[in-house]
Design brief:
heterodimer; A: 241 residues; alpha/beta; 6-stranded mixed sheet; 4-stranded antiparallel sheet; 26% strand; B: 290 residues; mainly alpha; two-stranded antiparallel ribbon
């Protein structure tokens, strides 16, 4: 067991965003969280990494509570977030973005090795190391966002909509990389609207609707589930041809 | 002709002080996203610090920077912790508005405190070498002014090196661009805000010392220096920290030109006109992007 979320509730002012969300991400797995826009997926990730404070419930890493730790220390526990919309430091170079990603104590211990690994996974980042992040294409920006998280050699990687705004071929690229990162031993928690691709990749999956977990199963079973297919995979109730 | 060149040269020298002063304001605004209108009062305190060190201890005003800089940096840390740190958790717009209120109050307190302790007498730092300099074709280059210019260049290079090439500097820039993403990378942004505010006040301190060797001063000069720093920041473009230096030079030149043409009494008006023109024609500033 690794990341566990217990009965987590969060709100924006009076508006509840998460209602008693419970889920688990076991070590070494890819866990997908799917659900419509506004379901609370991003809020859940932001709460896990300490950018948003829960009103109730707990976030546990290996059984230890995380939700009282200051947000800037979350990375020291091996949790890295690739945020929605990438959130790169646009006026800084590719290399500088990675250096900032390697700011934490945890990252500094393994810096040389981690940089080598990132440049091996994304050779294009090595080629463009001196370009400003804002001048990169969307796909490359996503690679850099993932690279910036990876240089801290996280135990668990949280990905928020990594496919957003990317061409289909680039989406495939990114997901292939996610699979590779997972095979190298990193647990992945993937939040996606692109449910089909996410479920094909994941071992385990949860569905979040209006702040509640409304479904949990193995990803393979979910791909076959009639209700899930209708609601999220765009099949009008008919079996796949 | 000589008079014109002489005026322009002096304009450049004064402009370099505007530049380093504005740099501090711009840095604080860019990173903490708050507007410190007490910045000019910190310039004033820097000038008095230089004066008292010169008068009391007999230390050369330029050497006094060794004391004034850490002093002002420390002052920045204290005021950030007491007054500005509580604001940093607010939403951007509320933060700017509240920072205006807080720093306006702080400016009044500092100005009146200076009046109380140091009286309203005009002070100036008269070194033994104040009148010395060399002469190129009738244009005078006083040593104090040249040293002023050189010191601003050194300070700006040091700051540039810090921001561009050190781990701390990269963390400061990352925080300025996206504090949430910076936090995720492990950067304690409260600490970054603290250090940055200290650096901003230290820049005001440098401007204060250089002002003390250039002009006479009184406790009430803060407002004018805040105004000039704001003009320079808008000229440079709010996103362009290092644009503040050339923009400062430009303001110094513009004032010199106005002194020659419409009279020194209207010097301040020219800065404000420049400010309005840039806002109308190029709101992103001369060196800003987008």
């Amino acid at each position: 067991m690794m990341l566990e979320i217990q009965e987590l509730s969060a709100s924006y002012g009076d508006l509840p965003a998460l209602r008693q969300v419970s889920l688990k991400a076991d070590a070494g797995k890819i866990v997908a969280l799917i659900g419509p826009n506004g379901a609370g997926k991003t809020t859940l990730l932001r709460t896990i990494v300490g950018l948003h404070r829960p009103t109730a419930g707990a976030v546990l890493l290996d059984g230890k509570p995380l939700h009282h730790i200051p947000a800037h220390q979350i990375i020291e526990h091996g949790i890295a977030l690739v945020p929605e919309g990438r959130r790169l430091f646009g006026g800084m170079t590719v290399l500088e973005n990675l250096q900032v990603g390697a700011y934490s104590e945890r990252a500094r211990k393994v810096q040389a090795q981690a940089f080598k690994q990132v440049f091996e996974i994304f050779p294009v980042l090595a080629e463009r190391r001196d370009s400003l992040a804002r001048t990169l294409s969307g796909g490359m920006q996503q690679m850099l966002a993932i690279g910036r998280a990876l240089v801290a050699s996280p135990r668990i990687l949280l990905l928020d909509e990594p496919s957003l705004g990317l061409a289909p071929i680039m989406v495939q690229n990114i997901f292939t990389v996610v699979q590779r990162i997972n095979r190298d031993g990193t647990t992945v928690f993937l939040v996606e609207q692109n449910a089909r691709t996410a479920l094909e990749l994941a071992h385990d999956a949860y569905i979040l609707e209006q702040g509640r977990i409304v479904g949990h199963n193995s990803a393979a079973a979910m791909l076959k589930d009639e209700q899930v297919r209708q609601a999220y995979l765009g099949y009008g109730g008919k079996a796949e041809g | 002709m000589q008079t014109i060149i002489q005026n322009l040269v002096f304009g450049l020298f004064v402009g370099s002080i505007y530049g380093i002063g504005a740099l501090g304001l711009s840095l604080v605004f860019g990173v903490l996203k708050l507007l410190n209108v007490a910045h000019g009062e910190f310039v004033m305190i820097g000038a008095y610090a230089c004066y008292w060190i010169f008068v009391g201890l007999g230390i050369d005003p330029f050497l006094s920077l060794v004391i004034v800089l850490p002093l002002m940096f420390g002052l920045g840390l204290i005021f950030n912790t007491l007054l500005f740190e509580p604001l940093t958790r607010l939403e951007t717009e509320t933060k700017i508005r509240n920072s205006l209120l807080v720093s306006f109050g702080l400016g009044l307190v500092l100005q009146n405190g200076a009046q109380l302790w140091w009286t309203g007498d005009e002070r100036s730092v008269q070194t033994s070498y104040a009148g010395l300099g060399f002469n190129i074709g009738g244009v005078v280059f006083p040593y104090t002014r040249l040293a002023t210019f050189a010191l601003t260049l050194i300070a700006i290079f040091a700051l540039w090196f810090l921001l561009q090439h050190t781990r701390l500097g990269k963390a400061i820039r990352a925080t300025a661009e996206d504090w949430e993403a910076a936090t995720q990378a492990g950067i304690n942004i409260r600490w970054i805000y603290l250090v940055t505010f200290g650096l901003g006040v230290a820049c005001a301190g440098i401007a204060g010392v250089l002002l003390a060797v250039t002009f006479g001063f009184q406790p009430n000069i803060g407002f004018v220096w805040t105004l000039k720093a704001l003009i320079v920041v808008v000229l440079a473009g709010t996103g362009s920290v290092f644009g503040a230096f050339p923009a400062g030079l430009l303001l110094g030149l513009a004032e010199a030109v106005s002194g020659l043409t419409i009279g020194a009494d209207y010097r301040e008006v020219v800065g404000l006109l420049l400010f309005l023109t840039v806002l109308l024609v190029r709101p992103q500033g001369l060196f800003g992007k987008e």
